[in-house]
Design goal:
The chain is mainly alpha-helical. Helices cover 77% and strands 0% of the residues. Helix 2 crosses helix 3 and helix 3 packs antiparallel against helix 5.
Length: 196
């Protein structure tokens, strides 16, 4: 009975935490208008790239950009680069991203290629502030990032199946912040108090 209770309570807590991260991150992203900002940036890129006649450019850019920005590898790899000068994880991610983007570009168009800009900005900022992020990047935070990234990739897949931006994945990007913050807060709450 105690084992069942432990597993049941743990599962309920995990589901509640996941729902909280998704809801909180989506509300924050919607308030900041991330999807609209990314869309306007995509329109500007389309003009600069001379692809005004490419009707699929914007959809390709909006689909590919979140795909390469989300996930634990982007954050952990950038932190390793900023703290230790270790780019091995970023190089591995870059190779994987290149393969994914080539496949997406073959079906959706060259708009996918320009997703390199948001991911470079995102990883560059994480590298720049790596020293401040290191204390909160616990094992649980990394696990939360991996789970949250997988959920967001699933949302990208839903948009691909229906060939429209039904789910505003860019608005969900702050979910990654909630994933790390919640893990850090729970760790602090569960840590035994220091002896005075």
């Amino acid at each position: 009975l105690s084992l069942f209770s432990f597993l049941f309570v743990g599962r309920v807590r995990w589901v509640k935490g996941t729902v909280f991260r998704l809801r909180g991150g989506s509300i924050l992203g919607g308030a900041l208008g991330l999807e609209g900002r990314l869309e306007r940036f995509g329109v500007w890129l389309r003009k600069r790239a001379g692809a005004d006649g490419d009707s699929g450019f914007l959809n390709a850019f909006l689909t590919a950009s979140p795909t390469v920005c989300i996930g634990a590898m982007a954050v952990v790899g950038a932190i390793n680069d900023g703290l230790f000068g270790d780019i091995s994880l970023l190089v591995t991610k870059s190779i994987l991203d290149a393969i994914i983007i080539m496949v997406m570009a073959a079906t959706m168009g060259k708009g996918c290629i320009f997703s390199a800009i948001p991911v470079a900005l995102f990883q560059g900022l994480v590298t720049l502030f790596a020293r401040f992020l290191q204390p909160v990047m616990t094992a649980q935070a990394t696990s939360n990032l991996a789970l949250t990234g997988s959920i967001l990739v699933f949302c990208v897949g839903v948009n691909l199946v229906w060939d429209k931006q039904h789910l505003k994945v860019a608005n969900m990007l702050p979910t990654l912040i909630f994933a790390v913050a919640l893990a850090f807060v729970l760790l602090r709450r569960e840590s035994p108090p220091e002896n005075l």
